[in-house]
Write a structure and sequence with these properties.
- This protein is α/β, with parallel strands linked by helices and 301 residues long.
- The protein is 49% helix and 12% strand.
- It has a 9-stranded mixed sheet, with helices on both faces.
- Helix 1 (2-15) packs antiparallel against helix 2 (20-32) and helix 7 (130-145) runs parallel beside helix 8.
- The longest helix has 17 residues, at 51-67.
- The radius of gyration is 20 Å and the shape is elongated.
- The mean pLDDT is 90.
């Protein structure tokens, strides 16, 4: 029965027409009544705000199925070497289950075991300064020596540098992206993404052939924060995606660390504000270890 529920969840995800909340509602409905058809879930279980909205959604689903059958999407996923983990699976990361809106279906390429053990999210500005890059070149080798897996978003700037420095130090890194796994965004990271796919782990909640949308990336940030036991913000302006990640981490009762920066430059306003709000000021990797020692020791067992 659980396998049938799992397959229905994957089918819904591959349609790529449901929001996070709708996917979670479908999950709850299937858990309560596993035999319900998708039409029954939408119409009888009031997944949508009205019958009119439900019928409109069904039109979207029928159009989606007309353009590209679910079986074709499954074949493309399989042929691309993409694997799937659902929230019903035993190896679904327990940290993600704890967050407010856990991804119901995750697509991935690489070593799934990297979702276990010591994990630290590393995020920051897309327009990273030399200072931010130097901080990572100093700190990441120290983190790697302690068996810490870095998690970031493969964006330009700090994300990119975090992945690169982890690789250079011989460590483990996970990339959470905001597109389907057959997309490279930004395109300049294509070679890096392919390397991470082969040697590390790249994952997404978006099915194959899903292109980048602006709203994908704030949603992606909740997975970075949720999968990590702590988050390090290296460089961030007053309003930035990095602060979204940090705020999600705080809401999910995760540790947040911040690198201080010049009060004369706007590119450090966000990290300095985080420190004012209670984030741990970090000047070296030991500052992180002192806060995370107990939790990471527990994750080793």
């Amino acid at each position: 029965m659980q396998n049938e529920m799992r397959e229905k969840l994957i089918d819904c995800s591959l349609m790529n027409v449901f929001s996070i909340d709708q996917m979670l509602a479908i999950l709850d409905t299937l858990v309560a009544e596993p035999d319900l058809s998708l039409e029954d879930i939408l119409l009888r279980r009031k997944l949508m705000s009205s019958q009119k909205a439900a019928l409109k959604k069904m039109d979207q689903i029928r159009e989606r199925l007309k353009k590209e059958a679910i079986t074709t999407s499954r074949e493309q996923t399989l042929n691309a070497g993409i694997k799937i983990c659902t929230i019903l699976d035993s190896d679904y990361p327990f940290e993600l289950k704890e967050i407010y809106q856990p991804p119901v279906v995750i697509y991935y390429q690489g070593d799934w075991d990297l979702t276990k053990g010591r994990k630290l999210g590393v995020v920051g500005s897309r327009t990273a300064s030399e200072y931010g890059r130097l901080v990572l070149r100093k700190m990441i080798p120290e983190l790697v020596c302690k068996g810490v897996t870095t998690i970031s978003g493969l964006a330009k700037g700090i994300d990119q540098e975090a992945h690169i420095q982890t690789l250079k130090a011989g460590g483990k890194t996970v990339s959470v992206i905001g597109t389907g796994l057959n997309y490279f965004y930004p395109l300049e990271n294509k070679i890096l993404q392919e390397k991470l796919t082969r040697e590390q782990l790249v994952l997404s909640e978006y099915p194959i052939n899903t292109g980048p949308q602006r709203y994908h990336f704030p949603l992606r940030n909740r997975i970075i924060a949720g999968l990590s036991q702590g988050t390090l913000v290296v460089e961030a302006k007053e309003r930035s995606g990095s602060l979204i990640t940090a705020n999600v981490a705080l809401q999910e009762n995760r540790e947040v660390f911040a690198i201080p920066g010049s009060v004369l430059e706007s590119s450090y306003a966000g990290t300095n504000q985080l420190i004012q709000a209670g984030a741990k000021l970090v000047t070296n990797a030991s500052d992180i270890f002192s806060e995370m020692a107990y939790l990471w020791k527990m994750s080793d067992s």
